[in-house]
Amino acid sequence: MTTKVSSKGQIVLPAEIREQDDIVPGQQFDVERIDRGEYRLTRREPAQNEGVMDWLLSCPQKGYFVPIESESTGTL
Description:
Layout: H1 15-20, E1 29-35, E2 38-43, H2 52-57
Antiparallel strand pairs: 1-2
């Protein structure tokens, strides 16, 4: 497969590759220069529990998740 670098320096991954590897917009990758003209693109793994709060807050039943009162652990 072939792709081009845009005037903004962006490289588009072909749709076939994105579909095969479940690549979605917003995912992050590391780019490593191996040698002149040779590069490695590696998908970064999301941090554990990344996005959990957004997922909980998107609950269709508003008010289901609410903050609870608790004592500070700073004085223990």
